[in-house]
Amino acid sequence: MQLRWVGAWAAAPQLVEEHNLPPSPGLASNTLRQVVRTSIGGEKIRIRLSNEYGQSNLEIQALHIAIAEQGSQIRAGTDQPVTFAGKPSVIVPPGQSVISDAIDYSIPKLTTIALTIHFGAVPIEMTGHPGSRTTSYIMPGCAHTMLAMPDAVTTDHWYYITGIDIAAQDSETVAIAALGDSLTDGRGTTANGNDRWTDVLAERLQANQPTAKVGVLNMGLGGNAVLRGGLGPTLLSRFERDCLKLPGVRYAVILAGVNDIGVVQNEDDTAERLIEAYRFFVTKAHQHNIRVYGGTILPFGESWYYTPIREQIRQKVNNWIRTSNLFDAVIDFAAAVQDPENPHCLCKIYDSGDMLHLNPLGYRRMGEVIDLELFTK
Q1: 157 within 8 A of 272, measured Cβ to Cβ
Q2: What is the pLDDT of residues 22-64, one digit of tens each?
Q3: For the segment 221-230, what is each residue's pLDDT rounded down to a tens digit?
Q4: I want to staple 238 with a disulfide (CB 3.0 to 4.6 A). Which of 67, 233, 245, 304 is the partner?
């Protein structure tokens, strides 16, 4: 029987900006331990890696998986090598990605995993996910079997890892692709705290029997735009990669557009262009049997983004999201976190301090306002 794969954890890759590159001693010929938390569990897994933005070969000398403990420590007896076409090493050509062999490895739901890579040569142009909100550990030389790395250099970024998939036993095991910007990526959350709204949603899904087989894949990118500009590839350009081609995706939640609105200088067609992009996303997703839930754009009054024109655009877009009936359902994030007295602003108890991003309490509110029945359809 052919294996059916479903994402249990994923991150959207981008070209790593210079200020987010690994600190000394760097990755070439050294070891990097990265920590992630899966949503759903499984008994057979595979790992996905990407050199999408590299201009030269990425050399992986070894990749090990283990259950993570505190800090850099892994649980004794859980460390296992991952292979590629039966070999411990693999070369990933520039612009390419690679998927490991399927290995027997038991991952319970909501498990913190350590992926430890010993590198050979590494491209100057790195592929990664800067907004990991999670600490990674760099050790000189070959250190991928160490139980702990107390002398490691730390950095709060992910590099080259893009997914952990599990072999599904039935058609009910599926995933949600959460698409967006820093509000999905989790700016304002606690480092190593797993308190993004997607984490809250994953915990709720796992605690609810009818949705316990639904995974959550956070495909947010900080600073990302839908149409143009922003950080990383636009959502229009990455939608196929970060939604349609992800393994096992049955649902998509789209919360995006604030970074497009936040740079408007004068009244223009941004609202119309965003609406057209949403139409494109829904049409493409439906062609792949993916249900799409539209999230309303959060208020940003009193932030550096706010102008009356930008607020008008936000209101226009949100009104369309709520009333167009294009989406399979609407998740009214804006209504959940706005100030009742000043609805163009975030409620103060949810504000991280910049009136644009939320604090952990605000992200918890976002995760809790989502109707879990949406993921039983």
Answers
A1: no
A2: 999 999 999 999 999 999 999 999 999 999 999 999 999 999 9
A3: 999 999 999 9
A4: 233
